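Hi D.,

Good news: the full-assembly prediction came through. Inputs first.
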Amino acid sequence: MSLPRIAIDAMGGDVGVRVMIEGAALARRRHERFQFLLVGDEARIVAALENHPNLRAASEVLHAPDVISGEDKPSQALRRAKTTSMGMAVDAVKQGAAGAAVSAGNTGALMAISKLALRTLPGIDRPALAALLPTLGANDLVMLDLGANTECDARNLVQFAIMGAAYSRIVTGLEAPRVRLLNIGTEEIKGTDALRVAANELKAASAELAMSFENFIEADKINRGEVDVVVTDGFSGNIALKAVEGTARFVADLLRRSFASSLRSKIGFLISRPATELLKHHLDPNNHNGAVFLGLNGVVVKSHGSANALGVANAVAVAARLLEENLTQRIATDLTRVGADNLRPTGRTAAKSRAAE
Amino acid sequence: MSLPRIAIDAMGGDVGVRVMIEGAALARRRHERFQFLLVGDEARIVAALENHPNLRAASEVLHAPDVISGEDKPSQALRRAKTTSMGMAVDAVKQGAAGAAVSAGNTGALMAISKLALRTLPGIDRPALAALLPTLGANDLVMLDLGANTECDARNLVQFAIMGAAYSRIVTGLEAPRVRLLNIGTEEIKGTDALRVAANELKAASAELAMSFENFIEADKINRGEVDVVVTDGFSGNIALKAVEGTARFVADLLRRSFASSLRSKIGFLISRPATELLKHHLDPNNHNGAVFLGLNGVVVKSHGSANALGVANAVAVAARLLEENLTQRIATDLTRVGADNLRPTGRTAAKSRAAE
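Then the structure:
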């Protein structure tokens, strides 16, 4: 049996059809067994394919007359799902015409469309957006939720932990990934009620869970290589992720300025270029592109709106890997094992208690 | 009239009396007009002062028999306020024996003790912890709250904005600092109810406020030099601050590794050392040490628990500057002008709405 196709929303993102198609072509070279369904304005896709006969040979083009813009609200996007490239790419997964969808479009719209079309797995109340982040250790870490759910209760956080661990096992090969809840301290009294309840639930269920759970981690420790899965609500996760991205760029900018500050430093920079190129490669967000909505009946990957062709190719590679490794089935199995459906519903992060007072 | 004294909790922090005293001595050299009240174990303070005759000449020692530990809960700390170095340093501010207190101890305990002893300014419901962060621009930015209040409502956020702007005017010299609320997107529908209400309140009051307010900023943009004050709840602020600190260290570690990866890179590193030293200096948290509790009847500065003597000296310098510039009086004046006491009380951040759905 050939592997299922990957549907590409060729219109999404700030960068346009050519970058999406070039990215898909790069991915095709790495994953020769995969076929592609390219969804969007047919004329523009066909034109872009002229430079990529290798991709063209492995692709079908599906014309979509409309596009979701960055300004569309999720509710507006939902109404136009059937005629837009994003909606039709996700629908292809629902219909079985593709095994996964990749889009660089509006995150809120992609979440809403995916949730409505694909529905959540049994035992999952809400999907979560998960991404891989670089660490000082041997493996990348999985962080979720990164913005799909502004508000989360303890039950959501427990489900995120189970889904994140399943993803991490695929990425790291570990039997029991190290899972932590993101908090503002590691003491048990710190943080919100939802965090404390989720920590207790995960500790109580740890015998059935294929993870090593140990309460909390603070945001300055996440990339030391001491944790494989960082679980948080979508508001805090989005803040943390963007703070990490912004600071990496900030430090790189400072470094550039420092190297330009004297002739001696400029010469040193030229000599040590392999080192700074290595760092640049390590920090380039394109090398970590491809966030996945976990918890759906199907694989949906979000590519960053400003990713280049290499970034798009990496997002497609994430989709290909999750298909090959049966992520959806593995999460479903884990959920059954722990009986996640029986987890007690509990207070929202809303009900934050002031632990510092 | 001589300037008021600065009370130093000589026992707080992971590093002990010697570092606190050495830091105070460094600060004394920079601020010759200031006097010090050194609070803690008298024998150890006197021993540490032997190497610092310059500080000894400007100091009085106040013996405190007890110490707040890092594990003490705020409630436990409050009960022992009268006999601990932290409690007695803050009490010195209350009694007028000092104008400001500096401690490297337990943040939650320092917040609880300071709030009870000094009370909040009229129009302020809760104090907020504010710190300066480096940017690519000409000035540092003020960020608050950094963890004093896990949960915040719109009214708290508005008060934080007013207090942060007052602090920023002292730091930047700007008449109308650029103030933004930290959010997961810049569109008006993004984030929590509390954020949206606070944004509307600040827009409505902008004629009376000495600030330039423009809605939201995302965490990856805070250090670009485009904003002077970043306002957020204590949970998100703590996550953002620690993510920034952790990532700066992460990138520095990667850079060190890259430079060590080949002989050529090592040589390049040696040649470009002035550049990397410049970067190291810029990123050293000791150079940005000293977070202040804004909104109290008095100045209380938190030094990082692991700060070195230079870091402690910087925290003391923050206290000295805020005394010289009459921060407390300026915040009180701003609050009167905007009539902050009349701001409508509104939904907690708890009542987060899922904007992405």
